[in-house]
Amino acid sequence: MEMKSEERQVFISHASEDKNELEAFIQPLNYLPLHPYIAINKQQVGWLPGTIQEELDSSKVIIPYLTKNSEDNRWVNQEIGYAMAQETNVIPVFESSDALSGLISNVEGVPIDRENPHETTFGIISRLREIFAPLPDVVSDWYLEIRCVECGEFNIFPINRTQQELRRLHREENLINRTCSHCRTYYQFDPRSLHLLSTEDRE
User: For the structural domain made of 5-132, what CATH number should be given?
Assistant: First the structure.
């Protein structure tokens, strides 16, 4: 049975200074059968705020965004520690390999590539697919849910390809093309990152 998106919650941990840059990498997660939760760490005294702890408890994956800004960020460090104690899957997205130390020293991460952001997003999605659909041939439940920019109706665009096939599409300079079933608006997505590249009203 297909998981509901709430059962695929992904906790995003970051320093507030990195929020805008981070969102550029993870924006496609909002369209996938996932439930991303971006932590907002307010200055509070004591251990993790109750809401943050509840969201971590509900998450199957935590993605800490590790940069110079988050090296000494107590919230990011506490969120990682709490997640590891709960045996939650961790996908570190890191600026420097030096960030992969302590509890996550042996955890496979995804390097931040600011010159090629689609590659970083591809790495994040690849790791998520390993966790949520561990069998290589299980691709039927992977899709993009897009609200049409023209008519406002929702569309389910199946992505019936493995990560390796999506990589090949990119190498062959092909895009993923989909059409709104309600108004025929045409969409193009990058096959690696699934970022929306363009729309066109064909009516």
Answer: 3.40.50.10140
